[in-house]
Each structure stands twice: as C-alpha cells, then as structure tokens.
C-alpha cells in the first residue's frame, strides 16, 4: 500500500485528484493544505482567499474520508520564492515565481518537512509522469490549454520520480465533469489566476510595497525621444503593452536600462524590427537527461503556444535556442524557457 501525500488547494483540479485516488483504493492518503499566502504580512493590500480555500478543502476531504493537515511554509516562501522574485525584479528581469514555487516549495520544502512519512506526492497539476529507461519523464497534460509542464520544468529527477498527477490524462472539461459526478462543492469554482503567492493582492501593489518607486523616463527605442514617465522599471516587463499611459499607441516595451532608469518602447508599426529569433540559456536543467537531438520545441511562457526550435551548445556551456520559423518581441531576461521533445518536457532554464 502506497503512502501518498496529496497537495490540495481548494481548486477543482486538486479536489478531483484527491477523490480519484480515494476511489482507486489501495492507498494510504493524507491531504495537505500548504499555507503560503501572505495574509499576515500584507493583509492591508488586499484579501487572500485562504480561509475560503481551507473551508472547501475540509469539505472535500470529509467527503473523501481523507485526513487533512495544514502546513505553514510562509517563512520558507519568503526566503526562497519571494526573495528570488524581488531580486530578479530589482535588476530588470522577469521572474517566474510559479516555476520556483514548484521546485522550492511544493516539491521541495514541503517534501523536506513531511517526505519521510510518504512514498509519493500527488497534486492536481495538468501533467503526466512516465518511466522510461529507468528515469521519470515529465509528459504534457492531455489538455493543451491547461498543460502545466512549463511550471514543472525545473523539477529534479528525484522530485519527479515521487510525483503523481492523477488528472493529467483529463481535459479541463473532463475534470469539471468528474467534479460534478462526485458532487464536489467546487465543481464550478473558477480557476485561480495570477502568481501563486499573491492571492487577490494586485501584483503592482506587492512590488510597490517591497521595492517602492524610482521614477524615470519612457523613451522611444529608435529615436531616444521621451514619451512619458514610469514609477519604476520593475513595474514593466519586455513585451508589455498595457499600463504604459502613452498616447498614440499601441506601444510595446522592448528594453529596460536599469542604470539609466529608462524603459524603452516602440510603436506597434516598428515592433517586428525588435523581434528576437534566438536566446541563450546559461545553465540548462534537464529533468531526466540531456536531449539526444537538436530539433525540439520551446515555450517561453505558460500557455498553449509552443514553437519549433533548434538548440546548440556553446563552448562556454551555454545553450543557444533558435526559433525555426518565428520571432518573438516578448523574450525577456529572467523568463524560463521550457524545452520539449514532442510530448516530453525535457527541462529548460532561465533566459539570459
């Protein structure tokens, strides 16, 4: 009998994952709710839904007959994910907190805390795990719109080997149908949006609280002409269109000069001139093993869009990723790029 720790959040995905494991039988299940919201430190910025989440989790666990434990990992979160995000923002990068949350918290600090009590860790991620050649392989979820392998692309082999994703073979519609069949209270609850640790706290309010303001200019990249002003470079990211407050647009952010405190933009008419068709990953991470061929696919952000690419190794150990047929104006330093060989997510790394 496998001892399985099931991560639950109050969302329909993790609830259905828990119920499916309970229906399967043959497992010793314990559900866990990870308390990582910043409701204590930042309650004045907005309301966090953790109390409602926990109420739903308790009801689902009661229906499944599975015991529930609440584990606070707020300090670990502050020391890792939040510290990382703020450091990246301060130097002009675009962080990916959800990627780091999975590696450092959900399948990191949590496993360090309770892992010796369990054989496996299950969650409601839209992804799959298969074993091939003795190695755990991270496979894309059945629903291309909901596939979450991008957020899992930095898991280490020993982490993935203990993971189970009970809904990875289902589409989102299939998950909802299962939830209705099981009469779950959250069957029609909307999916959560935004960065995992913020809850309902607006991102800009969070950034302002920690980094404050450093007013500077917004300039046209090609001419240097001053078009407006910003409150801090960390409020803007490469590829951004909304929230610039400029007339005569649309305008897009194409660069940030941290030392000069300048945000560079171009008009949509000139955006194609600033597209990038390649980028560098200084320290690629492979979930199972390095790829055996150079023709792959890549995602530079979560979503259905995935592009074909060619990879090559540089003499200094960096990985060069070249899009085969497209270019992208939103490639930003600090973003994670996830690399795929068909259905398998091989890993990836941080864009230089």
Kindly list the characteristics that best describe this protein.
28% strand; Rossmann fold; nine-stranded antiparallel sheet; globular; Elongation Factor Tu (Ef-tu), domain 3; 352 residues; alpha/beta; SH3 type barrels; single chain; 9 helices
Question: How would you describe the overall organization of this protein?
Answer:
By secondary structure, the protein is an alpha/beta fold. The chain has three domains: 2-124 and 166-181, 3-Layer(aba) Sandwich (Rossmann fold), CATH 3.40.50.620; 213-273, Adenine nucleotide alpha hydrolases-like domains (SH3 type barrels, Roll); 277-350, Elongation Factor Tu (Ef-tu), domain 3. 27% of the residues lie in helices and 28% in strands. The chain has helices at 12-24, 39-42, 50-64, 74-90, 97-114, 149-152, 157-160, 172-181, 203-211; strands spanning 2-8, 27-35, 68-72, 120-122, 127-132, 135-140, 163-164, 216-220, 226-230, 251-257, 262-267, 278-281, 285-286, 295-299, 307-313, 319-323, 336-341, 344-350. Strands 5, 6, 12, 13, 14, 15, 16, 17 and 18 form a nine-stranded antiparallel sheet that branches. A five-stranded parallel sheet has the order 3-2-1-4-7, sandwiched between helices. The chain has a four-stranded mixed sheet with strand order 9-8-11-10, with no helix packed on it. Strand 14 (295-299) and strand 15 form a beta hairpin. Helix 1 (12-24) packs parallel to helix 3, helix 1 (12-24) crosses helix 8 and helix 4 (74-90) runs antiparallel to helix 5. The longest helix is centred in the first third of the chain and has 18 residues, at 97-114. The chain starts with a strand and ends with a strand. The model has no long low-confidence stretch (mean pLDDT 92).
